Amino acid sequence: MRGCLAGVAAVGLVTLVAFRLHLNVSASGSLYLLTVVMVSVVWGFWEASVTSLIAVNCLNYFFVPPVLTFRISDPQDWVALAAFEITALAVSRLSTRVQAQARAEARQRAQVEKLYELGRRILFLDRRRTIGPQIVSLIQDIFGTESVALFDATLARLDATGSRAEDLEQLARRAYFQDSTLEGADSHTWAQVLRLGSRPAGALALRSPDMDRLAIVPIASLAAIALERARSFEKETRSEAARQTEQLRTTVLDALAHAFKTPLTAIRTASSGLLEAGRLTADDAELAALIDEQAEHLNRLATKLLQMARIDAAEVRLRRARIAVLTLIEDVLARYREQLHGRPVSVSGSAASLEVYGDREMLAAALEQFIDNAFKYSTAGSPISVEAGENLGEVVIAVHNEGPPIPPADRERIFERFYRTEESRHRASGTGLGLSVAKKAAEAHGGRTWVVSDEQAGTTFFLALPHGKRRQLDAVERQDPDR
Amino acid sequence: MQSNGKILIVDDESSIRRAVHNTLQGMGFHVDEASSGEAALRLVLEAPYDVVLLDINMPGMGGIPACRGMRRSLPRLGILMLTVRDSEEDKVAALDAGADDYITKPFTIRELAARIRAAVRRSSASHVDPDAPIRVGEIDLDPARRLVRKAGEPVHLTPKEFDLLHYLMAHAGLPIMHARLLRAVWGPEYGGELEYLRTFVRQLRKKLEDDPAEPRYLLTDSHVGYRFAEASPEPVAERA
C-alpha cells in the first residue's frame, strides 16, 4: 500500500514538473516510464502496475491533445497510450523478476554461510556435556529460528528451545517414527528424520517463517553427524573407563585373595599339624578338628566371594580359549572328588569332540557349583550324573541328582545372589552365592542356566553355552598351536 | 631325632613361615626360613636342601624367577611352589619354571607332607637304574620285561599305553603337564593333542582302576596334566 501511495506521489510530482515546463507527449511519457520502473524496482510488480495506470491517465489528461480532457481526438494517440502502458508493465515485470532473483541468491548465500558456520561450530561442542541441548541452541542461534526441537532416539531424549516448542517436539517424534520428512500445520514448520547410514537415529524439527523449506535437510544432516560424533566419543571414553576399572578390580581382588588366604593358610597348617602330630587328648583333637573344618569353610566362602567378584569384573573381558567339554567335566570332578565322599558320579557325552570357546576358569566354577549343589541337596548315597550334548546350536551340560524337588516358586530365585530356599537352610551349609556364580558365568558367555525339578525324575541343572564356532576355534588354533 | 629331610620355607608372610616351620619340625624335618626370593637363592647355594617350599607371590624377586634361578644351578633340588589362586596359569608357570609340584594355599599338613615326600624321592632317586621295577599300591611295572601286573595279575597294555604308564609311574606323585607327557611318549613333534592323550588315559584307567570313573592311581590334575598316585608308605587298599 505504501508503494502505491509513493507511486501516486511520484506521478503527481512528474505531472507538475512536466506540465510547468510544457514538455511534449513523448518527453513526459519517458518521465512517467522512468517513475514506473523505479517503483517496480523498489516495491514490486503490483505497485508498479497501479502506478502505471495512474500515469497513463495523467499522460492522457494533461499532455495528449485536447489537453485537460480525457478525450482523445487522434486515434494514433490511442496507440501511443496503449504502447506506453504495455511497455510500463513489461519493464516493471522484468525488473521485479531480476530483483527477486538477486534477493533469492543473497538469501541462499546467507544460508550456505550459516550452514558452514553450523558445521564449524558443531566441531567445537563440549563433548563432556549432553549434546542435544547444545545442538538446538546452536541452530536457534545461527539460523534465528522461532523454535527448534531435537529427538535423540538412542537416549530417548527430547531437547527444544524457543517459543511454542511442544508441538515441535510432537512433530519431531512423529518424523522419527514415520521415518520421513513432515510438514507442520502452519507452512513454516518442518521435521526431518536424522539418519546415520541407513539407520534412523532421531529427528529434527524447526519453525522459522523466513527459512527455505529445503534448508532443513542439510541442517538435519549436520545434527546427525554431531550426534554420531558425541556417541562415538562417549563409547571410547566408556570402554577406556571400563578397562581401567577392570584392571583396578583385578588388582584389588588379587590383593584381597592374598590377604584372606594368608591367615587361613597359617590357621590350617597349624590345626592340621596339631591333628597330624597325634599328641592331643581326644577332647583337644575334637577342638583342633573344629578349627580345621571351620578354617576350610571360611576358605571356601572367601574363594566363592572372590570368584563372584571376578565374574562381575569379567563381564568386561573373558579369557577365552577352546575347551573340550568332556575334559572340562573330568577336570572339575577331579578337583571336587575329595568333597564328594565317594558318591558315584557318571559322565556321558554325545561326542568326545564337543567344544566351547570360553573362559575355562569361569566355566569350571559354574560346573563345580552344579555338582556341589547336586551333592548337597540329593538323597544320601544316590548317584549323580553329568551329561554333555549338543542341541540347536548350543552345548548343553546337564547335572542330575535324585532327591526332593525344588518348589516351582524357587526355581528362578535360587539363581539370585544370597537367596536360599527354606528347605536348603535346614539341609546343608552353603553361602547362597554358588548358583548366582553359575548364572553369571553362563551369561558372560552369552549362555543361560535353568533347572528342571520334580518328585519322580529328580532335579537337573542345565548350563547352555553358544556352540564354539568352527571359524573361531580354527582361529584360536592357528594363534596357539601348542595348547 | 633323626631327620626326614632338610626343608627351606620361603614366604614373605611370617605367620605362614612360623606355622609351617613348627609343624614340619614336629614331623621330623629340619626346617630353615627365608623371607624373600633373593635370600632363598643365597641359602640354597650355601647349604644342601632336599626340598624348597617357594611362595609364588612375593615382593621383590617373585617365586617364579627364584625357582628358575635355583633350577639352573641345582637340577636335583626338589622345588614345591605355594600358590594362592587355584589358577591354571600359576600352576603352568610354576612347572614351566622347573618346579616339581605346586600346592594351593590353604593346604593341610598331610597334603604338604605327601608332596614333600614325593619331591624328596625324586631328588634322591634320579640316579636309580631306569630299568628298576616300580611299585605303587597294587600296580607293579617291570621296565626291563615290559610287564605290568595289578595285584599279581598280568595286565595287557599296548606299547604306547605301556610307555605312558611307565613315564607316569617313574614320576609317581608329581604332576606331569600334558605337553611334556605327549613329547616324552610320542615324540618332540607332539604337544597339543590333548584329546589323543585323554583317550589313552581313559584306556589305561579301564585296565588299571577298580572304578575308572573314580581313579585312585591315574589322577587328573585340573587343567595341567596327569599325576600318578604317590607310592604311599601305608597300603593303598584302605577303601575297598
Characterization of the model:
- The complex is a heterodimer of chains A (483) and B (240).
- Chain A is an alpha+beta fold and 483 residues long.
- Chain A folds into 3 domains: 2-107; 125-317, GAF domain (Beta-Lactamase); 318-479, Histidine kinase-like ATPase, C-terminal domain (Heat Shock Protein 90).
- Chain A has helices at 2-20, 25-42, 45-63, 75-122, 131-143, 166-178, 216-277, 282-314, 325-336, 360-376, 410-413, 422-427, 434-444, 470-479, and strands spanning 147-152, 157-162, 181-183, 189-196, 199-207, 320-324, 345-349, 355-359, 384-391, 394-401, 448-454, 458-466.
- Chain A is rod-shaped.
- Chain B folds into 2 domains: 6-125, Rossmann fold; 134-228, Orthogonal Bundle (Arc Repressor Mutant, subunit A).
- Chain B contains 8 helices and 12 strands.
- Chain B has helices at residues 14-26, 37-46, 63-73, 88-96, 109-125, 159-170, 178-186, 194-208; strands spanning 6-10, 30-34, 51-55, 78-83, 101-104, 134-136, 139-142, 147-150, 153-154, 175-177, 218-221, 225-228.
- In chain B, the strands form 3 sheets. Chain B has a 5-stranded parallel beta sheet, with helices on both faces. A 4-stranded antiparallel beta sheet of chain B has the order 6-7-8-9, with helices on one face.
- The longest helix of chain B has 17 residues, at 109-125.
- The two termini of chain B are 36 Å apart.
- The relative contact order of chain B is 0.10.
- The model of chain B is unreliable at 233-240 (pLDDT under 50).
- The chains are: A alpha+beta (483), B alpha/beta (240).
- The A-B interface holds A 254, 257-258, 261-270, 272-274, 276-277, 292, 295-296, 299, 303, 324, 326-327, 330-335, 337, 342, 344-347, 352-353, 360-361, 364, 481-483 and B 13, 15-16, 18-20, 22-24, 26-27, 57, 84-88, 105-110, 112-113, 179, 191-192, 194-195, 198-199, 213-214, 219-223, 239.
